[in-house]
Amino acid sequence: TPVIGVLALQGDVREHLVALAAAGAAARAVRRPEELAEVDGLVLPGGESTTISKLAGLFGVLEPLRARVREGLPVYGTCAGMILLADKILDPRSGQETVGGIDMIVRRNAFGRQNESFEAAVDVRGVGGGPVEGVFIRAPWVESVGAAAEVLAEHDGHVVAVRQGNALATSFHPELTGDHRVHRLFADTVRANRAARSL
Ligand code: GLN
Question: Is the ipTM above a cut-off of 0.90?
Fold first, then answer.
């Protein structure tokens, strides 16, 4: 069973833990570098990206996380988590740092304010069984992707799901829907990566 952590500094941690368990992973909260060292994969939850990156710095987990992502740790970011995985943010809040890992430029709050949050059916490449229900809450979109990144989904002409190597990001929140197909896709990546590393 792959051990998948959820970065538990702020945001919808509990929902991801439930979804990961349903997807067949051993799920646990990660706050400290020692906890990060023990996981085979990590989810960066939805929430407030500026708060999460600030706390990650304070908890001393930001640099170790960057290092593990560079080494190929499978990571999955939803919404704020997507922002954290972007190599570049358009108009970053001053001093706003990211973890990086996906060669893309992300625009925060691109779909509008909190009261313009919405749901829409989204076709995600690699996820069988029809479209997933996309929950967009002050969601970012991907302004542009580099050559190494693969677009997995679009909504209204905007990129809302991207993968690069072992890193996956969605603008929307599958953890809020009870449909665990995207978490299963990520758990499969974690399993495959773990198997490849133990050869
Ligand atoms: N707007 C938030 C941010 O910029 C993300 C919102 C979310 O994760 N639902 O971090």
Answer: yes
